[in-house]
Amino acid sequence: MQIQVENLVKTYKNFRALDNVSVDISHGELLALLGPSGCGKTTLLRIIAGLDFPDSGAIRFDGTDVQTLSVKDRNVGFVFQHYALFRHMTIFDNVAFGLKVRKRSERPSKREIRERVMELLSLVQLANLEDRYPHQLSGGQRQRVALARALAVRPRVLLLDEPFGALDAQVRKELRRWLRKLHDEIQITSIFVTHDQEEALEVADRVVILNKGRVEQIGSPDEVYRNPKTPFVYQFMGNVNLFHGRIEGIQGMGYVRPHEIEVDRQQKFPSDFSGIIEGIQPLGPYTRLTLKDETTGQLVEAEVPYETGKVLGLNIGMAVFYRPRNVQTFDGDYVI
Amino acid sequence: MTQGQRSYLHEPLWLKAVFIAFAVLFLTALLGLPLYEIFTQAFQKGLDFYFEALGDAVTLASIKLTLLVAAISVPLNLVFGVVAAYAIAKFDFRGKSLLVSLIDLPFSVSPVIAGLIYVLLFGLQGWFGGALKSAGIQIIFAVPGIVLATIFVTFPFVARELIPLMEEQGRSEEEAALMLGASPLKMFFMVTLPNIKWGLIYGVILCNARAMGEFGAVSVVSGHIRGETTTMPLHVEILYNEYNFTAAFAVASLLAFLALATLLVKTAVEIRARLAQRQRLQAGAEGLS
């Protein structure tokens, strides 16, 4: 299903949660709403679901305005950050809930319900846990039950609110890969909210970056990472060093990612900067260096591959030369 | 080293003994002895006299009235408590803190004042006194007044029990139910109610105990018409003032039994709640194998 969000505005007391937000979501797409906490991403999701109401603007499902439709009639699947499983029901009853509450005339038979629930439980790889209660499952399992429960009613769109936010790092990574795979299998239009840029980049077809209730940029993961439109997007997508008007040919602020800084013991180009190593932090495959620039005293973060660091024989207090490989500016041009 | 740590973490034996002795003495003096006294006084003249005292027509009327008052006020406060707790715990609205303090009001107001409010409103000299009289409705010095006063003093119990429970559970299970297509009624009976079941039973038990035992507020509005507007606590007072001690303690023993039964049911409810939890665990363990 196709979703159009047009000029949404939502204000809580004195706080503008959404400020003229417009997004188009195409059929079968997996879209990430990405932004820091308080940027309005969850509000947007809840408004699409019908759990919240905008002050103005429109939401259309396949061209039809849904604002007068109740939560029930929108036929939306929703997965909550903290699962919101029914704690007094077994996993089976949780997944069957949406089918059991239907009016008698629309309700599938007991056998059909059982088949559908079992099919979904095996889809989320939880077959034979149907008699358990939510509190007996791990976080990752609970979230998959929540997903199965949402899918049971064959929703037109699936909304996920920070679905992996309460899980630990390892499970999180596994589950988001699994979600991507699942989405490719069942091809349902899906929107998920996250504050983790890595998650958005890895899972989504397209990413919407929100900040203070406004859309900063919409694009493919590669696009928003490689070609950020605003300083906010650039800073939000990764670590950053700021060079204030000190790089040849650049006026104003230049942005450089730590891994795009080369470090050498010898000067290679006249434009090289010189600095002193103040800190060395080994981070597995690469090493993070904190350099103090010799002329300005500014601290610069550089990330060099572990091997390079070893070859250079870096030590704290050592004088080195460094040069940015790629500088981003926001008057529109790159300088290399 | 461990020896040293232990002495920091644990009080010396004599101090423990003093604390425990103090607690036991305190409980015996304040709870145990009075209870013992009630039963010895009640059965002083033998079982026959005890049952005769309870079989008295006026006493029976007071028991009946007490049950009637509880049967009206407890269900009303059950409904009110659930609705109020639901509104307070799951929604934000203007005047919410005012509503919370209003619910707490009966706890902070003297029951005598609570009774007096109704006398001032519905009594003959009260605001609505004239209108009620011409309509032929009597509230004060009659059963309706007693019910009103009882409802007033007991209405915090259910709501107070449920508000923290519902606040802790949050709104997302209800939202999930709605998203899955449940009607509001189905959502309430299939999701909300099962989640608050034990807290609700607990609140109702406490509410009932207070409804049957209330003295102050009921005393003000009752008028003490023997056999008509005297509830059990009031009847105990009347008998006592007439130097009919054994009968007074016989009726008092019924209230004491009620208190003990309440305690028993309360404990049973707590055990049941814990048992239900354990059964779930077992069911889950079997499901796994």
Features:
heterodimer, A: 336 residues, alpha+beta, six-stranded mixed β-sheet, five-stranded antiparallel β-sheet, 28% helix, elongated, disordered C terminus, B: mainly alpha, MetI-like fold
Task: Walk me through the structure.
- The complex is a heterodimer of chains A (336) and B (289).
- Chain A has 336 residues and is an alpha+beta fold.
- Chain A is built from ten helices and 17 strands.
- Chain A has helices at 41-49, 71-74, 91-100, 110-123, 139-152, 169-186, 197-203, 221-226, 231-236, 306-312; strands spanning 3-12, 15-25, 30-34, 56-61, 64-65, 76-79, 157-161, 189-194, 206-211, 214-219, 241-244, 253-256, 261-264, 273-283, 286-293, 299-305, 319-324.
- In chain A, the strands form four sheets. Chain A has a six-stranded mixed sheet, with helices on both faces. A five-stranded antiparallel sheet of chain A has the order 13-17-14-15-16.
- In chain A, a hairpin with a 2-residue loop joins β1 (3-12) and β2 (15-25).
- Chain B has 289 residues and is mostly helical.
- Chain B has one domain: Orthogonal Bundle (MetI-like fold).
- Chain B contains 14 helices and no strands.
- Chain B has helices spanning 2-9, 13-42, 46-55, 57-90, 96-108, 111-122, 129-135, 143-154, 156-169, 172-179, 184-213, 216-222, 232-241, 245-288.
- In chain B, α4 (57-90) packs parallel to α9, α10 runs antiparallel to α11 and α13 runs antiparallel to α14 (245-288).
- Classes of the chains: A alpha+beta (336), B mainly alpha (289).
